[in-house]
Amino acid sequence: MDAMGTPCYRGPAGRPYDARVRRLIALVCVLVVFDLALWSAVVPLLPHYRHELGLSTLQTAWILAGFSLAVIVVAVPMGHLADRIGPRLVTAIGTVAMALATAGLGLANSFPELMVARVFQGAGDAAVWGAGLAWVAARAPVERRGEAVGYAQVAATIGVIAGPFIGGVVTTTFGIRPTFLGMTGLFAILLVLIALEPDARIEDHRRTGMVAALRASLAESLITASVSMILVVALVGGALQLLVPLHLSSLGVDRSGIGLVYSVGAVLGAGVVVVTARVGDRVGRVPLAAGACAALAVLTACFALPAGIGVFVGLVIACSGAQSILYAVGYPLSTDGADRARLGHGVVLGVVNLMWGIGAVVGPVAGSRLADWQGTRASYALLAAVCAATAGAFVRVQRGPASAGSQIGR
After folding, report:
1. Counting beta carbons within 10 angstroms of the beta carbon of residue 22, is it exposed (0 to 12), middle (13 to 18) or buried (19 or more)?
2. Domain region containing 166
3. Which residues of the chain are modeled with pLDDT < 50?
4. Count of alpha carbons within 13 Å of 241, Cβ hemisphere only?
5. CATH code (residue 394)
6. What's the confidence (pLDDT) of residue 29?
7. How confident is the model at residue 92, as a pLDDT?
8. How far is it, in rounded angstroms, from Cα 318 to Cα 260?
């Protein structure tokens, strides 16, 4: 155990996955790739939407925040529903929502239509990350559950790599409508594959009312630590998703260039996720989170300094790597906490997704308002301060006395 009570596996890797579990992991990972690709494909399109639809900075921010608002509303209910009726059906519902959202992105001609599409995207995301990951956690060997859930983080990184490329290069080449409508049909195949997979049900003693499960989740220290990590990275990442593309556009970088910058950053993030999964099992996940927050504080502060295109692009790519650490650490930590609190994985992952949604809404909206009021440098400085404060909190936890560490780990 580390100072937070997190299992640190140093022994054998555990029982191998059987073919059915491997197939399920692959299916959920494909869903995650689609989810994150469609989520991040909007980022390089923001300058286009702002120009073509005459959007204000705040409206542009709401295009990002609409997705996260849906996550806030449905994340915990989706996770709780997965624990009650089984994750397969809830995952299928989320897949339908993602299909409708993808078609909506291709057909939208106004700000309200874009918002509706993004809300459907957010609902689908909440189902995939709540029910889909709970499905994997329930069927994977217990001693390899963290690894199994960790594959979703690698898949998410692949989606983040693909998304800016789709939103930037592919839409520039083929057009926005043909690109998104062409992707919509792929969800029908995924629905068939979902229907063919065996469902999973949690043990009866893990089934509790949604309010009771929510309270129990927030009382468990491992889940609280996980929530803190995801909240901070969503807050900072959401703000940067708005500010950075607009900043790059002002420096003369076109839509394809913005997409390529984010894709390169996501490639770095994929490598970071793989390394983090291995190192975290040995040294503990909280120290990695503290280091990632400290790195984000420095990098975000540097955004406020005068810099050319090359330096700014390098900072964007480095930020992607630091954010990937927090995502790779946070989700497995929450499943550890669910086991220790004897709660269903679905509702706990729903709580984590809820906090992600809150951060992802507050980040771009608050960042845009502060940027309009005091300028983008003030926004960058505030984000850096949030990261530094979080890093300091995790360091204090690690350096606290043994008695405090024991209490936190209960």
Report:
1. middle
2. 19-409
3. 1-14, 401-410
4. 31
5. 1.20.1250.20
6. 92
7. 95
8. 14
